[in-house]
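At this stage, I wrote out one protein's amino acid sequence and its backbone structure tokens, and that material follows here:
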Amino acid sequence: MNLIRVFGPLLTLAGIFGLIYGSYLFLSDEGNDWKTILVLFLLGLIFFSSGLGLIKKAEDT
């Protein structure tokens, strides 16, 4: 089993979830801390880009 084929989509989905949840917190009126929102956006962006990189890197054999 090729681990790149497993971790690529998982990281991409985790990144999408982090970006969506960060944008939800940014748009909500609950008075969330800006540091939390920034960390969620950055982690989501890192996970999303690394997951896409792993998906591109996976070869069909």
